[in-house]
Design brief:
The chain has helices at about 25-70, 75-85, 95-125, 130-140. By secondary structure, it is mainly α. Helix 1 runs antiparallel to helix 2. It is elongated.
């Protein structure tokens, strides 16, 4: 009998997180490293969006401050600063939204496509296979809080939740349509 037929919720990752047959540990680690590099790009992308939001907020706050400066009797200075800074490009020809769009459409898309291509070709598109193996090595098997799968994810050979799983909160579960 196949070993997967007797797997339980604590027997390791679900089938979406195990390497396909014949994929060696070095390949899994290398694919994991490509994904980790992409995760750094995702972090950078978040920072780029933060930059976009912060510069926009700074521009609006400057406009308010210049209105206050004008109200305090310094209209000529406020007008000079307003003309020089408010609405200015952050880099040649671009506001921050254009920087974000160029990044998303260029580097980010190319990196995302490459990361997916590596996973598709080497691990059948499975995500986080390396991390699933790491979890199996590092968790304390059989100890509460170290389960292989969350309670709301069916065990590898069991489509139903375990008997001791908490019932869903009826107020939070939308009706079926």
């Amino acid at each position: 009998m196949d070993d997967t037929a007797r797997r339980s919720r604590d027997d390791g990752p679900d089938d979406r997180h195990v390497p396909p047959t014949g994929v060696d540990d070095a390949t899994v680690a290398a694919v994991g490293a490509v994904t980790a590099a992409f995760e750094v790009v995702e972090h950078a992308r978040g920072m780029l969006y933060a930059f976009h939001r912060l510069v926009g907020r700074a521009d609006l706050e400057l406009q308010e401050a210049l209105d206050d400066l004008e109200a305090a009797g310094h209209g000529e200075l406020a007008d000079r600063v307003r003309a020089d800074v408010v609405g200015r490009n952050v880099i040649a020809g671009r506001w921050t939204f254009q920087v974000v769009e160029d990044f998303d459409d260029g580097y980010h898309r190319a990196f995302a496509d490459a990361e997916r291509r590596v996973r598709d070709e080497l691990t059948a598109g499975r995500r986080h296979v390396y991390e699933a193996q790491l979890k199996e090595r590092e968790r304390t098997h059989g100890r509460r809080g170290h389960e292989a799968l969350p309670v709301d994810v069916p065990a590898p050979d069991d489509a139903r939740a375990p008997d001791d799983a908490p019932a869903a909160d009826a107020a939070r579960v939308p009706p079926a349509v």
